[in-house]
Amino acid sequence: MEKRRLGRVGIEVSPLGFGCWAIGGPFSDEAGKPLGWGEVDDKESVQAIRRAIDLGVTFFDTADVYGAGHSERVLGKALEGRRDQVVIASKWGNTFDETARVMQEQDGSPEYVHKAVRASLDRLGTDYLDLYQLHFDTTDEIAQPLREACEDLVREGLIRSYAWSTDTVHSAELFAEGKHCSAVQHEASVLHDAPEMFALCERADLASVNRTPLGMGILGRRDASRPATGADIRTLPPSWLRFFAEGGTPAPEWWDKVSAVRDVLESDGRTLAQGALAWLWARSPRTVPIPGFRTVAQAEENAGAMAFGPLSDSQLTEIAKLIAD
User: Fold this and answer.
1) What is the pLDDT of residue 325?
2) Which of 78, 80, 183, 309 could make an S-S bridge to 46, C-beta 3.0–4.6 Å?
3) What is the domain extent for residue 252?
4) Total tally of structural domains belonging to the chain
5) How far apart are CA 66 and CA 89, in angstroms?
6) What average pLDDT score do residues 262-278 get?
7) Which backbone phi and psi does 177 adopt, to 5 degrees?
């Protein structure tokens, strides 16, 4: 597949990115509820990242709060000596205790942006970020100064572009007014179409960075026989994590939809996950899905989707009908 572009700033990335939430390992909110994806093997994570690069993946998306800083540290270790081969995105806005691995509160001040970006650069072992993203929803009055703070960071050479990780079109539009805004990160998958956000990306010349492209695993490796366990956010899913029921098993109403489209997604030799990624590539030429991973095998499967390319128009039409039924 051809490379894709981070909007108007022209940074080229592979059509597939890797989301680094899962490799951050366990962390929680102040009430003790899990926010990570469970235990991880850092050595395996490093090997998976390096394998992904070998297979043509050049875009890696993380956040300072993932694992309370741990995801950035693992990604930085994996990229030692290979920084010039990749595009790195991170996020800010949530404060945390790195030692206790606890997320605390949000800080929407422009002063905190300057502090947070330098801390991320230190953990990642780099002197600049390609994409820096606001990581919580807020009001226009708070967001506008943050957009201008990002422009300051561009002028300082600490970041190359910025975005808002949001599912609100108005918020994405507000950040898009900034000269160096290059993308919006938003939810999108075969189970959750986002036509208004795709239209905005086309209209404003933004990349569409797609989180939860595999429905938090329901479009990949998780079924009733393989529930999420332990310190995994899917065991006690918050309201927005609608694809899973308490206990870490897929919610029945969503599993029925997966079952309805499985044959189409797995056609032409793809796995279910590869078909779900192919749906996103077919949905818009601006999409860059960022599935999570924890092992070399998962990295190889996800990267392998690029060899198949997008679904056909007729397959998109068929899936739309099956989802609606």
Assistant:
1) 81
2) 78
3) 4-324
4) 1
5) 13
6) 98
7) -70, -15
Q: How far is it, in rounded angstroms, from Cα 86 to Cα 66? A: 20
pTM, two decimals, is 0.97
Residues in a beta bridge with 59: 17, 87
Give the distance, in angstroms, between the CA of residue 53 and the centroid of all CA atoms in the same chain. Answer: 17
For residues 145-159, average pLDDT? 98
- Give me the active site residues, please: 66
Task: Give Cβ neighbours of residue 231 (< 8 Å, ≥ 6 apart).
Answer: 26, 28, 34, 36, 38, 39
pLDDT at position 224, please? 77
- CATH number of the domain that 303 lies in? 3.20.20.100
298 vs 317: CA distance, rounded Å: 28
Q: Which residues contact 313 (CB under 8 A, 6 or more apart)?
A: 282
Which tokens go with 164?
């808002």
3-state secondary structure labels for all residues of the chain: CCCEEEHHHCEEECCCEEECCHHHCCCECCCCCECCECCCCHHHHHHHHHHHHHCCCCEEECCCCHHHHHHHHHHHHHCCCCHHHCEEEEEECEEEECCCCEEEEECCCHHHHHHHHHHHHHHHCCCCECEEEECCCCCHHHHHHHHHHHHHHHHHCCECCEEEECCCHHHHHHHHCCCCEEEEEEECECCECCHHHHHHHHHHCCEEEEECCCHHHCCCCCCCCCCCCCCEHHHCCCCCCCCECCCCCECHHHHHHHHHHHHHHCHHHCCHHHHHHHHHHHHCCCEEECCECCCHHHHHHHHHHHHHCCCCHHHHHHHHHHHHC
- SS3 for 158-175, per residue? CECCEEEECCCHHHHHHH
Residue 217 one-letter amino acid = G
Q: Are 323 and 257 in contact (CB under 8 A)?
A: yes
